[in-house]
């Protein structure tokens, strides 16, 4: 059963059928692309079509095209993406990480990351998601549902389930991903590359936002850098640098149908702008200064649009504070804005700020992510993340929601006492997109056996108390 924002007390179950076209699909027809893009996408990952789901084998099944090759015309197809999903799923269960280049050669990685990076860097800081798109055949403007996804953290098999459960991206189903694709989970590279492939194939139907873990600092601490090195060995540094460059291009936020604001962390401060003395040869120079914490004020979408997002690590000091706020901030039960002292970067914002932001821009919801069960258990006054989402602020103009899409998180824990949380995603339905429907799901089990890429016994569970002084601020 699903749960709507207007009825949050309804139970959420681990298995759901959203609608007829997202039930277990039939075998793909010979001509797969047309039917899938029109909204009846068949699944490449059902048990009878993907033998890796039923029995492990060191030899790939004949229907997989391995190694994955880049299309000669440079245009991705749905067949290509389905094959990529099936290959990643099979290799995660049958091959050691060092053999990953036999699945996705470096030159194919290079082609995908180049096209995706160019596409992402051209998008604005805050993308406008328009569900009212013209039909490619008739030209009529039909409204599409929008699926919003929170943190996935390299949990590939749970992402594959989510895509199958929600229905794959199509002409009548858009996706907005709220960041944190990598780290902690063992398949961050596959997760990120799969989503890039969907983005390249359907650039106006799939939107990828940046999370705080799409940064140099976090990926060096929580495993993604070492994962890439393990999978590409002597080419690992090259692949990692390309991923970092792509991270810099990820937009920071989205506005869906003019009704819903989404970002990984949430809201952000206004950055004070003061004219400076005219210098010879310099016209219209402005100084951006850190606002005094006593006079913090909420930032505007105009300021967000002008922030410089192309940084490896969003600064926690200096003039370019908005990206750090958007990626690292957390809601508070207390009114006003305050420095986020627990994390050392970003802000805490209260219900009054949620109301101010929603009212100013005539929005109904803020959907953010960023907090899993490990972070939430340390937050007094907030609900836990057992169901994969919480409704944290209810104000006159609407609601503020935290969404987390990685079930049984984190993948690696130092104790036997696991959180056993569910993951969740949100479906926004036309025509008004103002009654989010929550879909909860449990982790895909058993997970393939694999070693962690970071010392999870020593590294703290949540992102609090990080050594932010070592972050690059360039």
TrEMBL record:
Entry-linked PROSITE patterns: SER_THR_PHOSPHATASE
Chain intervals with Polar residues compositional bias: 1-17, 30-50
Cofactor: Mn(2+)
Catalytic activity: O-phospho-L-threonyl-[protein] + H2O = L-threonyl-[protein] + phosphate
Annotated ranges, domain Serine/threonine specific protein phosphatases: 209-214
Enzyme Commission (EC) number: 3.1.3.16
Main enzyme class: hydrolase
InterPro entries according to UniProt: Calcineurin-like_PHP, Metallo-depent_PP-like, MPP_PP7, PPP_phosphatase, Ser/Thr-sp_prot-phosphatase
Similarity comment: Belongs to the PPP phosphatase family.
Name of this chain's protein: Serine/threonine-protein phosphatase
Source organism (scientific name): Acacia crassicarpa (northern wattle)
């Amino acid at each position: 059963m699903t749960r709507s924002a207007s009825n949050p007390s309804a139970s959420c179950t681990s298995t759901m059928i959203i609608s007829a076209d997202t039930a277990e699909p039939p075998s793909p027809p010979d001509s797969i692309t047309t039917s899938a893009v029109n909204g009846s996408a068949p699944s490449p990952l059902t048990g009878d079509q993907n033998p890796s789901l039923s029995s492990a084998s060191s030899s790939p099944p004949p229907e997989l095209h391995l190694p994955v090759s880049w299309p000669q015309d440079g245009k991705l197809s749905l067949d290509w993406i389905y094959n990529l999903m099936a290959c990643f799923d099979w290799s995660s269960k049958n091959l050691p990480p060092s053999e990953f280049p036999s699945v996705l050669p470096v030159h194919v990685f290079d082609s995908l990351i180049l096209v995706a990076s160019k596409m992402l860097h051209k998008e604005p800081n805050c993308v406008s998601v328009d569900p009212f798109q013209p039909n490619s055949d008739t030209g009529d403007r039909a409204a599409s549902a929008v699926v919003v996804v929170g943190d996935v953290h390299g949990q590939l098999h749970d992402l594959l389930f989510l895509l199958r459960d929600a229905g794959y991206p199509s002409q009548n189903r858009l996706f907005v991903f709220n960041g944190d694709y990598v780290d902690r989970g063992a398949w961050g590279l596959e997760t990120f590359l799969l989503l890039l492939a969907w983005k390249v194939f359907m650039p106006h139907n799939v939107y990828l936002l940046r999370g705080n873990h799409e940064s140099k600092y976090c990926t060096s601490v929580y495993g993604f850098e070492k994962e890439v090195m393990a999978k590409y060995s002597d080419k690992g540094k090259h692949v990692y640098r390309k991923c970092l460059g792509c991270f810099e291009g990820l937009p920071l936020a989205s506005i869906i149908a003019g009704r819903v604001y989404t970002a990984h962390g949430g809201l952000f401060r206004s950055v004070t702008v003061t004219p400076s003395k005219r210098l010879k040869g310099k016209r219209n120079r402005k100084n951006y200064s850190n606002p005094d914490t006593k006079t913090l004020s909420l930032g505007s979408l105009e300021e967000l649009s002008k922030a410089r997002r192309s940084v490896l690590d969003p600064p926690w000091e200096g003039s370019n504070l908005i990206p750090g706020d958007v990626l690292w901030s957390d809601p508070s039960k207390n009114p006003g804005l305050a420095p986020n002292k627990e994390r050392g970067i970003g802000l805490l914002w209260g219900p009054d700020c949620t109301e101010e932001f929603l009212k100013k821009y005539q929005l109904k919801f803020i959907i953010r992510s960023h907090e899993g069960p490990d972070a939430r258990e340390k937050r007094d006054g907030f609900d836990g993340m057992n169901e994969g989402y919480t409704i944290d602020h209810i104000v006159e103009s609407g609601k503020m929601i935290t969404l987390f899409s990685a079930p049984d998180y984190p993948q690696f824990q130092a104790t036997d006492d696991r959180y056993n949380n569910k993951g969740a995603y949100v479906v926004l339905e036309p025509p008004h997109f103002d009654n989010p429907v929550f879909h909860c799901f449990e982790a895909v089990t058993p997970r393939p056996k694999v070693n962690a890429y970071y010392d999870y016994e020593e590294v703290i569970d949540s992102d609090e108390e990080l050594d932010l002084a070592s972050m690059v601020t360039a």
